[in-house]
From TrEMBL, chain A:
Highest rank taxon of the organism: Bacteria
Molecular functions (GO terms): heme binding; molybdenum ion binding; molybdopterin cofactor binding; sulfite oxidase activity
Source species of the chain: Roseospira goensis
Presence of keyword Oxidoreductase: yes
Protein name: Sulfane dehydrogenase subunit SoxC
From TrEMBL, chain B:
InterPro entries: Cyt_c-like_dom, Cyt_c-like_dom_sf, Cytochrome_c-type_DH
GO MF terms, alphabetically ordered: electron transfer activity; heme binding; metal ion binding
Pfam families: Cytochrom_C (PF00034)
Recorded superkingdom: Bacteria
Keywords: Heme, Iron, Metal-binding
The Cytochrome c domain, residue ranges: 90-178
Protein's UniProt name: Cytochrome c
Upper taxonomic lineage: Bacteria, Pseudomonadati, Pseudomonadota, Alphaproteobacteria, Rhodospirillales
Length: 443, 251
C-alpha cells in the first residue's frame, strides 16, 4: 500500500475527524475492500489456511463509533439496479480454462459455497453456451412451431406474455456437473466440482398450452426444441414430458431472463439435464421419431466401460453435496461447527439427507428446513464437533422414489470412468488437522 | 472420530421438537387451513382456479399461422433416415477444398484438431479403452447428424453461412477421411444421406438407469473403503491467479 492510500484510509477511519470526502471514501472502499477481498480470498480458497481470517479494525469496534454510524450514506438514486456489498466481491462465477477450447463454447460455475437457501441469484447462475450469449431484441423474437401439427404457427413475445403463466422453483443442473471427477479428485473446490447448477423460480407458459394452439397430430410423438443462437442447439424431447411439466419461461426470480440464461425465452424441463433446456428458443418441431442431433449422439451420451454408450439419459439422479465446510470454506474453529449443503433429485423430491463424518461408515440424519419442493434444490444442515483431528465429511440423499445417492466406487463398477456426464456420486471432503478442507477420493 | 455421537443425537432431538414436522405443529397447521377453507366456501366466488387442470385444449386468439416460406427458412433439421433433409448434393473431393478453406484452421488439415478443437477422424477400437477417442468415425451413429450440425452451427462463429451443397460435400469429406465411404467422387445428397451406415451405429443403448444402487441402506458400521487414495490438491489443476494447467476435459 502506498502512502497516499494509507493516509486516506486513516482519514476515513478517524473517529474525531470530519466526514471523509467522497474521494477518500472511494479510496477507502477500494483499498479496504481490496484488502478484505484478498484476505478473504486467501481464507475462502483455503490456500493460506485458517490463519488468513480477516481481522476487524479496532476503530470500528466498541467503544469507538464507526464512521458509517456518523455520515450519510448513498441516496436512493445511487443504484437504480443494486449490486451486492463490495465485501462480497469474491462471490462470483468462475471458469476453468483448460476445460474447453473457447470461452464461447464453455461453462462457468455458480459459487454455491457462498450462497444461502436454495434460490440462486440471477447474476450468479452458471452459464453454459455453445456459441456465446445471443443478444436477442424481444421485438425481433419469434417462436415457430411446425411439423406434425394442424397449423404451423409463429408467436411473438407479446403473444407469449398474453398466455396464462405458472411460476415454479426448479434446479437446472448441467449433465457434466462433476464430470471432471470421474477418474479421481481433480478440482479442489465445491464451486468447480458441483457448481454447474442453479435453482431459480421460473415463470412462463406451460408448453402444453402452446402445443394446444397448434394442434399436435395423433402421430406427433416427439418434439425438437431448437435454439436461436449460432449453435442452433437442438434436442429431441418425448411429447409426454412436454405435456407433463415443461415450461416456456421468460422470467427467473421475478425479472425477465438474463441474456446468458436465454432471454427472452427458454425451455424449462424440470429434473432433466440442463442441455435440453434450450435457450433463446426459436422453434419447436413436432415429429414421429427422435432426431439424434449432435447434442444427443456425439455429446450427452454416456460411454460405458464396455464401449457401448447410453443415450437419452435425461433425468438428473438424486445428488447432494456439503457446501460448507468445503475447500473454499475451511473449518476455523474447534468445537461446534455447522455443516450445510444442498440436495436434489430430478426424479422427484428429496426425502432424507444423511451426513457422515467418518467417510461413510456411520450416518446421521440431517435437518431439511422448509420448503422441500420437487425437482428443486433442497437445503440441509447439521452440526459436528471438531476436535482438531482429521474428518471425512460426506452427504447422501434419498429421494421419494427410494433412490439412494451412490458412492463413486459403486458408479464406477457399473459405468467405468468415461461417462463424462451424470456423475452424482457422494462427495468426500477431508478436513485436515489445520482445518483446511480438501477434495479427496476414497478407495 | 471427532464427532460426539451423543451430542449429535441431542441436537437433532432439539430441532425435532421445534420442527413443523412435529405432530402437534401439523395439527395446528391443519386447523388453520381448515378454517381458511371454511371461510372460502362460505364466501361465494372465492374459489381459486387451477387453470391448467381445467382447460385442456383451450385455444387463444394469439399467434398467427406460419407461411411456407417462413417454415422453409428455419426448418433445417434432418432425421437419421434422411427425412426432412434440405435438397442438395456434394462429393468428398469437393468437400476437401471446402474443408481447407472453412474448417482446417481449427480442426486441422486432416481433421486432427488444433489445440483443444475437436478431432474429426480416427479413434476406431478405442471406445472400451482407458482413453477413448470419440469421432464421427469411431462414435457417431448417424451421418445425418454430421450434415445437420455442419449446416446449422459450423463454421464456429460463422454459422448458417454454408450452402446445403457445401454441407453435403463437407459431410462426404468427413465420411471419406473416416473410411465410411471409399469413393471421393460419390455423390452424397438429401436422397442418400439416410442410407449411410456408420461404424458405431449399434453402439448405443437406451437409458437403463437407475443403477449403482445399494442392496440395503446402511446407517451404521457400513463396510466402505475410507482410505484416501486421491487428492485434488496434489493434482493441482484448480484455477488460481497464474495457472492454466491441463486437466481432464469435459469437451
Amino acid at each position: 500500500m502506498d502512502g497516499t492510500k494509507g493516509a486516506s484510509v486513516d482519514d476515513a477511519r478517524n473517529t474525531t475527524g470530519a466526514r471523509p470526502s467522497s474521494h477518500a471514501r472511494r479510496q477507502f472502499l477500494r483499498t479496504g475492500a481490496g484488502l478484505a477481498g484478498a484476505a478473504a480470498a486467501g481464507a475462502v480458497l483455503g490456500r493460506s489456511g485458517p490463519a488468513a481470517a480477516v481481522e476487524a479494525d479496532p476503530a470500528n469496534l466498541p467503544p469507538n463509533v464507526p464512521w458509517w454510524s456518523k455520515y450519510l450514506g448513498d441516496g436512493v438514486e445511487a443504484a437504480p439496479y443494486g449490486l451486492p456489498s463490495e465485501y462480497e466481491s469474491h462471490v462470483v462465477r468462475r471458469n476453468v480454462r483448460w476445460l474447453t477450447a473457447t470461452t464461447e463454447s464453455s461453462v462457468n460455475f455458480t459459487p454455491i459455497q457462498d450462497l444461502h437457501g436454495f434460490v440462486t441469484p440471477n447474476g450468479l447462475c452458471f452459464e453454459r453456451h455453445h456459441a456465446g450469449v445471443a443478444e436477442v431484441n424481444p421485438v425481433d423474437f419469434r417462436l415457430m412451431i411446425n411439423g406434425l401439427v394442424d397449423t404451423p404457427m409463429v408467436f411473438s413475445m407479446e403473444d407469449i406474455l398474453r398466455f396464462p403463466a405458472v411460476s415454479r422453483f426448479h434446479f437446472l443442473e448441467c449433465a457434466a456437473n462433476s464430470g471432471m471427477e470421474w477418474r479421481g479428485a481433480q478440482l479442489n473446490g465445491v464451486q468447480y466440482t458441483h457448481g454447474m447448477i442453479h435453482c431459480v423460480q421460473y415463470t412462463g407458459v406451460p408448453l402444453r398450452v402452446i402445443l394446444d394452439q397448434v394442434g399436435v397430430k395423433p402421430n406427433g410423438t416427439w418434439l425438437m426444441a431448437e435454439g436461436g443462437d449460432a449453435s442452433g442447439m437442438n434436442r429431441s424431447i418425448p411429447l409426454e414430458k412436454a405435456l407433463d411439466d415443461a415450461i416456456l419461461a421468460y422470467a427467473m426470480n421475478g425479472e425477465m431472463l438474463r441474456p446468458a440464461n436465454g432471454y427472452p425465452l427458454r425451455l424449462v424441463l424440470p429434473g432433466w439435464e440442463g442441455n435440453m433446456w434450450v435457450k433463446w428458443i426459436r422453434r419447436i418441431e413436432v415429429g414421429d421419431q427422435p432426431w439424434f442431433a449432435r447434442e444427443e449422439t456425439s455429446k450427452y451420451t454416456d460411454l460405458l466401460a464396455n464401449g457401448k454408450a447410453r443415450y437419452f439419459t435425461w433425468e438428473m439422479d438424486a445428488k447432494s453435496v456439503i457446501t460448507g465446510p468445503c475447500p473454499e470454506k475451511p473449518v476455523l474453529h474447534k468445537g461446534i461447527n455447522q455443516i450445510k449443503g444442498l440436495a436434489w433429485s430430478g426424479r422427484g423430491t428429496v426425502k432424507e439427507v444423511h451426513v457422515s463424518t467418518d467417510g461413510g461408515r456411520n450416518w446421521m440424519q440431517a435437518r431439511l428446513p422448509d420448503p422441500v419442493l420437487p425437482k428443486c434444490l433442497t437445503c440441509f444442515n447439521a452440526e459436528f464437533e471438531w476436535t482438531g483431528d482429521e474428518v471425512l465429511l460426506q452427504s447422501r440423499v434419498v429421494d421419494d422414489t427410494g433412490y439412494v445417492q451412490p458412492t463413486m466406487n459403486a458408479l464406477q463398477q457399473v459405468r467405468g470412468v468415461n461417462s463424462i456426464y451424470h456423475n452424482n456420486a457422494i462427495q468426500t471432503w477431508l478436513v485436515n488437522k489445520t482445518g483446511e478442507v480438501e477434495n479427496v477420493r476414497l478407495g | 472420530m471427532s464427532v460426539l455421537d451423543k451430542s449429535w443425537d441431542k441436537s437433532w432431538d432439539k430441532s425435532w421438537d421445534n420442527s413443523w414436522d412435529h405432530p402437534w405443529a401439523r395439527t395446528v397447521a391443519r386447523t388453520v387451513v381448515a378454517g381458511a377453507l371454511a371461510l372460502a366456501v362460505a364466501a361465494p366466488a372465492a374459489a381459486p382456479v387451477a387453470a391448467f387442470e381445467l382447460d385442456p385444449g383451450k385455444t387463444y386468439d394469439l399467434g398467427r399461422p406460419a407461411t411456407p416460406e417462413e417454415v422453409d427458412g428455419w426448418d433445417i433439421d434432418v432425421h437419421p433416415d434422411g427425412a426432412g433433409a434440405v435438397p442438395g448434393q456434394g462429393t468428398a473431393a469437393e468437400g476437401e477444398a471446402l474443408f481447407m478453406t472453412h474448417c482446417a484452421s481449427c480442426h486441422g488439415e486432416f481433421g486432427e484438431g488444433v489445440d483443444r478443437y475437436p478431432v474429426l477422424f480416427g479413434g476406431e477400437g478405442t471406445l472400451d479403452s482407458h482413453d477413448p477417442v470419440k469421432t464421427p468415425g469411431s462414435y457417431w451413429p448417424y451421418a445425418s447428424t454430421l450434415w445437420d450440425y455442419i449446416y446449422r452451427a459450423m463454421p464456429f462463429g460463422q454459422a448458417q453461412t454454408l450452402t446445403a451443397d457445401q454441407a453435403y460435400a463437407l459431410t462426404a469429406y468427413l465420411l471419406y477421411i473416416n473410411f465410411v465411404i471409399d469413393d471421393d467422387e460419390m455423390v452424397l445428397s438429401h436422397e442418400t444421406i439416410g442410407d449411410i451406415e456408420m461404424p458405431n451405429r449399434d453402439g448405443f443403448i437406451p437409458d437403463d438407469r437407475p443403477d449403482a444402487q445399494p442392496a440395503t441402506l446402511c446407517m451404521t458400521d457400513c463396510d466402505v473403503a475410507t482410505k484416501v487414495v486421491g487428492r485434488a490438491r496434489i493434482i493441482d489443476v484448480t484455477p488460481d491467479d497464474d495457472s492454466d494447467a491441463p486437466g481432464i476435459s469435459i469437451d
